[in-house]
User: Fold this.
Amino acid sequence: MNETASVAVKAATGAVAATPKTGSVAEADRQTHEIDGFQLVIDALKLNGIETIFGVPGIPITDLARKMQGAGLRVISFRHEQNAGYAASIAGFMTGKPGICLTVSAPGFLNGLTALANATTNCFPMILISGSSEREIVDLQQGDYEEMDQLAIARPHAKAAFRVLHAEDIGVGVARAIRAAVSGRPGGVYLDLPAKLFPQSIDAAIGKNSLIEVVDPAPRQIPAPDAVQRALDLLASAKRPLIILGKGAAYAQADADIRTLVEKTGIPYLPMSMAKGLLPDTHEQCASAARSYVLPEADVVMLIGARLNWLLSQGKGKTWGGKSAKAWGGQKFVQIDISPQEADSNVRIDAPVVGDIGSCVAAMLGALASSGSKPPAEWLDAIRERKTRNVAKMAESLAKNPTPMNYHSALNVVRDIVKANPDAFLVNEGANALDHTRAIVDMYKPRKRLDVGTWGVMGIGMGYSIAAAVVGGEQVIAVEGDSAFGFSGMEVETICRYDLPVCVVVLNNNGVYRGDEVNFGGGDDPSPLVFVKGARYEKLMEAFGGVGVLARTPAELRAAMDEAIRSRKPTLINAVIDEKAGTESGRITSLNPAATKKH
Ligand code: ADP
Ligand code: TZD
Assistant:
């Protein structure tokens, strides 16, 4: 390599040890022309537009984290890998680029694995990069430090899993991980980087040439014209059509076209939880307030990026007007999805449209007759009537001001604050705290509502909040059940350390679902469902320099939230809720194997 080329490589890789300690000219020359595994990993990620790393440091990735920060990547260091993993996964959902989580071996890896599995389940693109111990010792089970066959364990929980053994292969490993995470149906990818890889040095020019900038990582998938026409014909034949928007539609970032399709067809729509705000919840065609009417009554349903899983009662049964728990309700379905295997997974899909949502919706718009007729007025009127009635009922509940607060009186405040701050992210977990927030708090913009998703997992709260603040750059409001908050509560230190504009509202009813349960056996131990009464969660935020507020009334809650948003300071509001206010499992009581206690 001539000198100019060598300088260029140095500049590009930053791979040069500044002053060789040994003083030997040969050693200096060797270091100048070589690049190590640490630097190749960093360069491969940067080359592909990765800007943020979420993780927890330790052997063998401590230096990698330091060097990443030194190289200009934003490294957000957490207190527990699961929260870092959740942060990475939701960053993937928000941006369409894989979120990166970096962990140590065995226990750190396992802590991150829950988040990886959750990402795969939710179709979020994420890459879990874990350091691992020495292969030769692990494979012979000779007892290495943090010994574990991580690749084998990750594989069933990931969309793909790779291990890199040689520095020359880092570029390929990172490229494959990125492609696997974001192409087709997105998901979680595991990338195993053994400790020995990092100090491996290779010729800098060879190293640089081995890196791959992934071209078109999530290629468009154009739907077949006849599939599009079949779907449009079916919709045109409908008397009571309905569109269901899922989080795949939110992920696709085809917001304007989706809105045009909904408005041009005039079809009422239901947003799934994380698709709320894709069109504003206040939109005239939004049928959320008439959900239990439209599902059984619709005759043709078009799913856009939503699966007919448990969240939609598998597309059958009484929710859909079926005569028994598993009976088909008679609806015909159009399903737009990037995964061809999704169709027919629960009920017959009469018109599958396979492709990416952006291309599918654009194709439908292109093929839609410009003078297309709107759904029959009787259908729209019937929905409007139910909506008006239910909205009035809800307004009545929201207007009440009981002491102590209940979910409605507290969430009425959150509803107003979100309306006034539509750019804020709303993170939400819990049971009652989740269901009531979803029903009461309207969303106005796409990808602003981030919640427990497909698994209904507790613990996403602080990780999602941190990612939303770091990657989304906007105020975050996290509405948390007191149980839910406990799963990731220690990350309030992380929120304070990075001084993030996160306002956590703990809806504190002293327990899981409710706070008034007693020990069935009559012993001294508390019920498994209750916590310390009157716990002062706000002091946790104060412990790290943030603002803590105890709110017993809607007025106190409103003042505290207003101030949190004005100041953008890390804030935790302990909103005291009636401990008798919740119901078992929120709205999914029926999923309990046997109801042991009725409230
Ligand atoms: P929800 O929980 O909101 O009902 P799901 O997670 O069940 O949504 O469904 C999301 C669906 O969206 C998945 O089946 C996934 O394959 C699909 N999907 C994700 N991204 C895209 C995309 N860009 N284009 C098409 N389909 C997508
Ligand atoms: N563990 C994990 C990881 N996910 C879960 N969903 C649960 C346990 C079970 N679970 C729920 O499904 S909701 C919930 C638990 C423990 C907490 C509900 O209590 P909360 O909310 O205080 O968060 P409410 O408002 O009191 O219902």
In short: The longest strand covers residues 126-132. Confidence is low (pLDDT under 50) at residues 1-21. The pocket of adenosine-5'-diphosphate (ligand 1) is lined by residues 122-123, 185-186, 246-248, 251-252, 272, 274-275, 305-307, 309, 311, 337-339, 342, 356-357, 454 (CB under 6 Å).
